[in-house]
Each structure stands twice: as structure tokens, then as C-alpha cells.
Amino acid sequence: MNEFLATTPFDLYELFLFRLVVQQRSFTRAAQLAGRTQSAITRQIQGMESSLGLELLERTTRSVRVTPAGEFLFHESARLIGDVEASFQRLREQFAGARKEVRVGVSRSIGLAYLPGFFHANLRHLPQVSCRVSYQKSAEILTALEANELDLGVLSPPKRLPQTLRVTHRFDDAFTLVAPAELAATFQALPKSPVARAAWLAKQPWLLIDDTTNTGQKLHAWMKRQGLKVEPAMRLDGFDLIINLVALGLGVSVVPIRALALYGRKRNLQRLPMRERFVRELVVVVRRHRKTPDHVAQFVANVLF
User: Fold this and answer.
1) Count of CB atoms within 10 A of residue 80's CB?
2) Which of 10, 205, 251, 290 has its CA 20 to 30 A from that of 61?
3) Does domain 174-281 have CATH number 3.40.190.10?
4) Cα(26)–Cα(272) distance, rounded to whole angstroms?
5) Could you tell me the CA-to-CA distances from 195 to 46, 198, 201, 227, 303 in Å, in that order?
6) Is 117 exposed, middle or buried (0-12, 13-18, 19+ CB in 10 A)?
7) Residue 304: its pLDDT value, please?
8) CA distance 104 to 78
């Protein structure tokens, strides 16, 4: 290992530039973001490949394709780069007087009505700590946590978390059936028979959270258990958009009750009774293998679940 490191196949900055090219799939865009010339970045990547004796990228006139070796280096280096950047940030916070920061990833399937509970108390109790928030897919949040690009994530968890991550808090999130007023009136006029209501619901246009998301997979499985085998008219990745489209009369949906807090004045949006309520679990996730900084732990403790 020491002999390999002594040959210095590349330094951290060159590794950063390589990752930037992979992320952008373009030497030109990577050069613009890095403030370097395209030829300079090309020479540095070629130097890495020469030192390693491996081809990392395949260049064409229109795009950049990552080789299997390049994919391996890209994924394996994510945590290294994230750890180095986080270490320098902590160093500046502890000894250079830099303002402390918490990096939070919030899943797109979590509505905007939740955010005051996540951040309001912290703005009051920890005014000296800034917060950088990103709205991402759950899979992207987990990847960013593993790479130390985020301090914590709030999401609906997959069946199995990566071993490098752990859950600090869990809370239930109940859902309700919603429809525009006109459709709600016809539903209420039906006999209170589960069969009649299920038949009516099966005929409606459904707006559903994308079934590629963790919440979507669980919701679609629950609907099948309820006998609601529907083909969605629209698949979306956020409940705020779904709620607005339902209020515009485009269909029915099952949405988080808490997400409706922002839409109390929408008269065209009505809740309908459900025989059984769908409930998902939301969690706060952090990295497992290193001590959580005090200001991050305090931030989590202040969240109103």
C-alpha cells in the first residue's frame, strides 16, 4: 500500500476533476465549473490513466463514456472526497470561526407542509447554525449520506438501509383519500357498501406517486390489498403537485394528511372516508461509522416530528 501511494498516481484535486467530468459527462462543462480549460482537464485525466495503466473514460466527439474501471473509481472515491471536504469544513468550524452548517436532504415525496416542523425550531434555538437543504430522491439522499455530502436525510426508507447508515428517529405518516368536490359528491351519494365504493374508485382517474419511489412501492402494494387495481392516469414524484392537480379536478389520490395543511382553503379539495388507512414510515438517517457533530445532533433533537 505504501509503495503504491508513493508512486502518486494522482492527487485529490485530480480525483475531484475526474469525478466532475463523470458527473457532467462532458469535459467542456466540467472545465466551466472548475474554472479550468478543457485541455488542462484532459491532460490531467490522461495523466491519471497513464499512472494507473487503466482507461477511465472513453471520449467521443459528442459525449464521454465511463469505462468499468472508471465507474469503480468514481463510486469508490465518493466517500473519500466527501470525508476530506467534511473534515476541512469541521476544521474551519472548530478552529477558524467558520459558521457551522447542517446539510439536510429531504425526500421529494415529503410535502412542503412538513418543512416548518423540521426547521422552525432550529432557526429559533440554533440561529448560529446555517442549514443547506436539498430536495432529492430517497436513493440520491442515501448515496449522498454515504459519500458524506449530507449530514442527515429525511425519507421513507427502503427495505434495507446500507450498513454504513443508521436511523435516529422514526415516525408514522398517515394518508387520506382526496377528490375534487364534484367527484366527492358522487362518492358520498353511493351506498355505503365497500364493493360499490371500490367499483366507483376503480373507474376514476388516479394521480399517484411514482411507484419507483419507496413510498410509491408501499402505497401501490397497499392499494392492491384493498382491491384497488387501478392504472394511474398520471404518475408524479411529489405530493404537493398531486394535491394541486386533484384540486383542479383532474382525478383522485391518496396523499399524506399532513401535506394538506397548506391547502386548507382549497374548497374544491375534499377528503373521503377510507375503510383502512395507509400509513408510511418516515425516518431520519445519518452515517453510522463516525461521531455525529454536536450541532448536527442538536439540530435533529429540535425537529418536531
Assistant:
1) 13
2) 10
3) yes
4) 50
5) 67, 5, 10, 9, 42
6) middle
7) 78
8) 18
Beta carbons within 8 Å of 205's beta carbon, 6+ residues apart: 233, 234, 250, 251, 252
CB 174 within 8 A of CB 279: yes
Partners of residue 271 on adjacent β-strands: 178
Q: Which of 116, 172, 107 is nearest to 137 (CA)?
A: 107
**Is the Cα torsion angle 62, 67, 70, 74 positive or negative in sign?**
positive
Helices then strands, each counted (H, E), the chain: 12, 11
Any idea how long the chain is?
305
Q: What is the pLDDT of residues 96-127, one digit of tens each?
A: 778 889 999 999 999 889 988 888 888 888 88
Over pLDDT 70: what percentage of the chain?
95
Q: Are 64 and 17 in contact (CB under 8 A)?
A: no
Confidence of residue 245 (pLDDT cuts 50, 70, 90): very high
Three-state secondary structure along 163-187? CCEEEEEEEEEEEEEEEEHHHHHHH
The matching CATH number, chosen from 3.40.50.720, 3.40.190.10, 3.30.70.660, 3.40.50.620, for 99-172+282-302 is 3.40.190.10
CA distance 112 to 262: 8
Residue 33 has pLDDT above 60, yes or no: yes
Take residue 39 and report the three cell numbers written for it. 485541455
Nearest CA-CA partner of 296 in 102, 154, 116: 102
Domain boundaries, the chain: 2-77, 99-172+282-302, 174-281
Q: Per-residue pLDDT averaged across 276-304, rounded?
A: 88
One-letter identity of residue 12:
L
Question: Is the pLDDT confidence value at 7 over 70?
Answer: no
Question: Does domain 2-77 correspond to CATH entry 1.10.10.10?
Answer: yes
